[in-house]
């Protein structure tokens, strides 16, 4: 849930290193979580820069409890 919240907070794209650093996670863990979100259609992999997917606007609402 923290990864979704983070992606919803930033209007632009974040790198794997950004997510790892901001959430204090090892890069391998951040990568695994992001890939899961991409597979679920909740995030897009934009040339190595994961971001919240426009295909699932409800994900932003879920992430920020809106």
Characteristic key phrases:
alpha+beta; 4 helices; 2 strands; globular
Strand order of the largest sheet: 1-2
* Cα distance spanning the termini: 14 Å
Which stretches are low in confidence, meaning pLDDT under 50 for 5 or more residues running?
A: none
Number of distinct helices: 4
What Rg do the Cα atoms give?
A: 11 Å
The counted number of beta strands is: 2
Our count of domains comes out at 1
Class, according to the CATH hierarchy? Mainly Alpha
The profile of the biggest β sheet is:
2 strands, antiparallel
In CATH, the architecture is Orthogonal Bundle
The gross shape turns out to be globular
- Please indicate the percent range of residues in DSSP E strands (runs of 2 or more): 5-15%
What's the helical proportion of residues? 40-55%
Average per-residue pLDDT, rounded, comes to 77
CATH fold-level assignment: Arc Repressor Mutant, subunit A
Helix/strand order, N-terminal first: HHHEEH
Q: Supply the helix-strand structural class.
A: alpha+beta
* CATH-level-4 superfamily name: Winged helix-like DNA-binding domain superfamily/Winged helix DNA-binding domain
